[in-house]
Amino acid sequence: MDAIQLKTSCICGNARPYQDCCGLFAAVPDSSKGNEVSRKWAAFRHALHELYMYSVPLRNLYEAYWEKLGQESYPHHLLMADSEYGRAVTANFFWDYSVQFSDARPILRAARDVEVKNVRMANDFREWSLSSFSLGIVVGVDARHGHLRMLGSEKIHQVVHGGDLPEPGTCVAVRLLSYRGEEYIHPAMLVFPRESFSEAEADSGFHRICKALGMKSIAGLRPDVQCDEWRRHGALFLSLWREQVYDAIIGTPSRNAGMVAHPFNLPDSISVTAKQILSGGAFQTGKNNFEIRYRDVPLAQLNMRKSGIQGVLVDEAFRPHVFSWLAEHLDSPDSIPKSTHENNAPPAADMEHWIRRPLSFLNEESPLQASSHDFGKRKLRDLIDGMLKQGSDVEMLRQRLGL
Ligand SMILES: [Zn+2]
């Protein structure tokens, strides 16, 4: 990864610039700042930053890993704009895949280098190398601590997290890293949607992955013993997450997604304004051009002409989702809320539509998506408080979002 690449994506695989992500932890943390737990987290993130910097010389291996991913049937490049996906791919490379190269075991090498510098972290590094990716259910959580039950074992782990561990009952895919006597959650955490992925489904997903690896349980998976299983396991959990978060909703794109055009025309009878398209959650990409996205993945381009709307699907698999989006947002303009102002409470009749609409205020998540994690909940509570001050009736909204 060179300097130019670091401007557009971070060493951890996040699509955000390095300066706004891991770069914030590049310097040795100031031990006089913050409370005890935030100091602990800052120290952990700094140590992780130092570890990840060892992956920079491994760029050619990372490219080889990408090439290997490119041979799979899923077009992984489509999702690299999704920070969570990008971070998980990089973590899978770093923790699982690169372990097979005897001359490039970044973690063990890091341990050796650090030992020379006489920093007492070598043992921690070595333990980090044994950190597998797996599913856990959140049992309890507060601002920075939480309890997780890892599937395949009854043990409850007490963990330190970065403030983004979701509410109890939610399934997460995590790597638990031992650092200075405590277990920390690696920032490349994947949260499964609680409303569609129950604990029972998490169990069956976990067992499917164990079976795919030919193991009874992957609790206790060892990189030095089960080498092949170790190399593959992280990617299987990432696929499980992708199936739940993307494929189940938008369909599974083909390998050549984005390379073949799938044009469509909307009937002339539909008259639509740019305002309507945008209020439905589409993005403007040019004067008369718009993009329908799901999370960070573009699904279709729309071009508004005098004669009507022409569209192009990024992949044929997205057709049902895109067309139901169009039907919902364009076909019956009356169903589109009159006000696009985000701070007004939606009328009761529009609520189901409103809670599924991406809002810039929520980083393009819908209120329903945002209500599944702590950070989003905080923002939603602020929003609802604002609505209340304006005299809106927010009780139904509160109930619907579980706030
Ligand atoms: Zn980062």
> What compounds sit in this structure?
zinc ion
Averaged pLDDT: 81
Shape, please?
globular
- Please give the domain count: 3
Q: Which percent range fits the helix content?
A: 25-40%
Structural class, please?
Answer: alpha+beta
Please report which band the strand proportion falls in: under 5%, 5-15%, 15-25%, 25-35%, 35-45% or over 45%: 15-25%
What does this entry look like structurally?
By secondary structure, the chain is of the alpha+beta class. It has 3 domains: 3-250, no CATH class; 252-336; 338-403, no CATH class. It is built from 14 helices and 11 strands. It has helices spanning 3-8, 36-53, 59-70, 83-97, 106-116, 122-128, 199-212, 227-250, 274-279, 319-331, 351-354, 367-370, 374-389, 395-401, and strands at residues 133-141, 145-150, 156-160, 171-179, 182-185, 190-191, 262-265, 283-284, 289-294, 297-305, 308-313. Strands 1-2-3-5-4 form a 5-stranded mixed β-barrel, surrounded by 4 helices. It has a 5-stranded antiparallel β-sheet with strand order 7-11-10-9-8. Strand 8 (283-284) and strand 9 (289-294) form a beta hairpin. Helix 4 (83-97) runs antiparallel to helix 8 (227-250) and helix 5 packs antiparallel against helix 6. The relative contact order is 0.08. It binds zinc ion (ZN). Residues 10-12, 14, 21-22 line the site of zinc ion.
